[in-house]
Design goal:
The complex is a heterodimer of chains A (about 375) and B (about 70). By secondary structure, chain A is mainly α. In chain A, about 65% of the residues lie in helices and about 0% in strands. A two-stranded antiparallel sheet of chain A has the order 1-2. Chain B has a four-stranded mixed β-sheet with strand order 1-2-4-3, covered by helices on one side. The chains are: A mainly alpha (about 375), B alpha+beta (about 70).
Chain lengths: ~375, ~70
């Protein structure tokens, strides 16, 4: 175990994990997932919010097994390598609020950082502005970090605290087996399913789950994080995580080329809009929220899987944020931003700035 | 007495920030860093080495790890 453990924290470790995820995502798209959305943590959590009916946008309802796999794969890795450590207490409510606005920002752009990279790797030029926004948001976050921003220390807690989010995910999986999708029926038992739109597009359950478990396992080992990739370069001039991100992008691009999924352009890209300013602005807000919360949405799932109760709260915040985004008309669609999306970005940025400016308590 | 950085309970990037600040402050010598996750241990080690410091010792204890980094 020792050797393997060291390998994933090396440069080749993070590069190979980035390459693996980069290859797998376009394959999941080929197997049924939506366009340029082989994996999108924000979109898939939004689909889960739809599946349990906390928003009722009919086109985005599906209990995505990838997300379930991410958390459970990380849990398995953490236990095998004796890294499971139940902890919480570092300003959970702040993490919830950051999760809510991170999701809203991501849904104004239409994608998390993973999907921004996948969109770029498939030729969607709009993703460039989303990624620039992400870097901008992370940069603002690093200014706060340099100025002493922190959310305080976690405390070690009952093992079962760290188990809660994995158990919720396991519960979701069980619900999927009890209430499987029925053809042409938007509801199966208590779960909602989409009949059209991105929510109706998915790879076979077992493949999605297996891919999620594998990614969760490897990402826990390697600490793969797309926000951290930019943050560490800006903050410390350290490119370790960034190498993983580049490998992800390069392998996703190559796989898309091989699968005939590379279509360069700006207009009519799948599940995307062309409002440049708000592609940028949504991701500034999301990037800042990720930086203030210490991880991209994927990383938060992996942390939650290894016992981090605060990351779990961020995840719950993101799922709740998806409900706000669709119930309040904040989320974008291929036609452009939602009726209140712009207001939400402005409010979200103000909230993130409030958090950044006021939470600089000296670490005891 | 050696200089100690207690980064237990703090998540990424705080342990690295605290270590780099201390490195900048004392330039050379020995620093004892306390962390509580493997991720922090790896990140702090990587950051210290990138500044030309060597990892002199790593002790595992109940609450996590104690790293000793050195530069002459």
């Amino acid at each position: 175990m020792g050797k393997l453990k060291n390998f994933f924290s090396t440069s080749w470790g993070i590069i190979s994990v980035g390459a693996f995820i980069g290859m797998l995502a376009p394959l999941l798209q080929k197997l049924g997932n939506p366009g340029n959305m082989g994996i999108c943590v924000a979109c898939f959590e939004r689909d889960i919010a739809g599946a349990i009916g906390i928003h009722r946008a009919a086109v985005v309802q599906y209990m995505r097994p990838e997300i379930i796999g991410f958390v459970l794969g990380a849990l398995i890795a953490a236990y095998i390598f004796k890294e499971f450590r139940s902890r919480t207490g570092s300003a959970p409510v702040v993490r919830f609020v950051l999760g809510v606005f991170a999701m809203i920002g991501a849904l104004v752009f239409l994608g998390c950082p993973w999907r921004a990279l996948l969109r770029l790797a498939a030729g969607d030029g709009n993703a460039i502005f989303g990624l620039l926004g992400l870097v901008g948001g992370v940069w603002i976050g690093t200014l706060f970090l340099k100025g002493g921003y922190n959310l305080g220390r976690t405390e070690k807690t009952h093992t079962s605290v760290g188990w809660l989010l994995p158990l919720i995910m396991l519960g979701f999986l069980v619900l999927m087996f009890i209430f499987p999708q029925i053809k042409w029926d938007p509801k199966s038992g208590i779960l909602f399913y989409s009949l059209k739109g991105p929510g109706a597009m998915h790879a076979p359950l077992i493949i999605s789950l297996a891919a999620g478990l594998a990614i969760g396992f490897l990402a826990q080992r390697s600490r793969f994080c797309t926000m951290g990739a930019f943050r560490d370069i800006i903050l410390f001039r350290q490119a370790h995580l960034f190498m993983g991100l580049l490998a992800f992008l390069a392998f996703a691009f190559a796989t898309n080329l091989l699968l005939g999924q590379f279509h360069p352009g700006f207009a009519k890209q799948p599940v995307a809009h062309t409002m440049t300013l708000w592609n940028f602005g949504g991701m500034v807000m999301a990037g800042l929220a990720f930086a203030l919360a210490g991880g991209c949405p994927g990383r938060q799932l992996f942390l939650a899987g290894e016992g981090d109760g605060d990351a779990a709260v961020f995840v719950v915040g993101m799922i709740s944020g998806a409900a706000f985004a669709h119930n309040f008309g904040l989320a974008s669609s291929p036609n452009g931003v939602g009726p209140h999306g712009i207001a939400a970005v402005i409010i979200g940025l103000l909230v993130c700035l409030f958090i950044g400016f006021t939470m600089r308590k000296k670490i005891a | 007495m050696s200089i100690t950085v207690d980064a237990r309970g703090l998540s990424c990037p705080q342990p690295v920030l605290m270590t780099l600040n201390k490195i900048k402050e004392i330039q050379k010598g020995e620093i004892l860093i306390k962390v509580d996750t493997d991720t922090s241990k790896e990140n702090v080690s990587r950051a210290a080495q990138s500044q030309g410091w060597e990892i002199a010792d790593v002790q595992e204890n109940e609450g996590g790890y104690q790293l000793t980094i050195k530069k002459d």
